[in-house]
Request: fold
Amino acid sequence: MFANPIATALLAWYGQAYRRLPWRLPPGSTATPDAYRVWLSEIMLQQTNVAAVVPYFEAFTARWPTVESLAAADDADVMAAWAGLGYYARARNMLASARIVAAGGGAFPDTGSALRALPGIGDYTAAAIAAIAFRHSAVVVDGNVERVVARLFAVEAPLPGSKSDLRKLAATITPAERAGDFAQAMMDLGAGVCRPKLPLCASCPLAGHCQAQSAGTAGELPRRAPRAGRPVRYANAYFLHDSAQFLLVRRPPKGLLGGMLALPMSAFSDDGDAKTIFPSTPVLVSWSKLTGEIRHIFTHFELRLSVYSAFIPAHSRPPGVWADKDRKGLIGLPALFHKAAAAAMGSLPIE
Ligand code: SF4
Reply:
């Protein structure tokens, strides 16, 4: 079928084994892909696994079925719908991109370079959209594909230094036709068969072409250069509550968790001595520190968050967004503040 036997074998396998996902067309479909759905799925899949993305994708496309409807949405509604998916800069970039595309008539650009000009779209996402939504022959390389290629060609050089070689090798097996199916087949093979720790070589359609499998090194590749550890940073979060509600603030639009509803927080500190900067309240409140700390991993650092709780009479509470002190009040909070507020609620005396 194709000049390269790896693409032939992989696409034959994909025809049977493909993952049924709500943004995908079946293999070999001649229907026109919906670029909005492909783009939305690729933004959500950045740094998030498929199982976590599916319910968010379904909720977003039910509520905002077109790029125009998403572009017209209220920022706060979109950020609240995104809550829990993490990496909130993606949601802000997604909205900005939707508004650019809608203002230009609603058609997504179809080339890698034009796609990269949209906020939040890097090389990988641009290639994936070009291949899947527009069926262009783009070389789509994510972590899964790097792993498969490193094994197929027994690349011993460690990541990240070997990235450009892996990309060149991926280009040698990417077919000119059905590039979208090929990209998705590589993703599926990497996720379900050529797994990071225990590759299932016995059931792999590429086993006959795989140099690492022959050499017995499949489970060791790709090698990785040792990484410097993540720095640890510290901060305090404040749970100010009356008998029924607790205080939330909206974070500034730019920066960490930008635009999201949050508990009031101190500044970050690098030395474990987060300064208390909770804004003054109309009456003196007495803060008590919860036992333990909440650990949360961000891309560039690990946060250790101490949580302080204080009661304030309802008639003295400062202005702000006051949420109900129950499960409903936690909806729309990023995971970090969800954990912190739930911990504080768990520590409250039953009233
Ligand atoms: Fe991965 Fe094994 Fe298949 Fe090679 S044979 S591509 S190592 S699953």
Summary: The chain has 14 helices and seven strands. The chain has a mean pLDDT of 91.
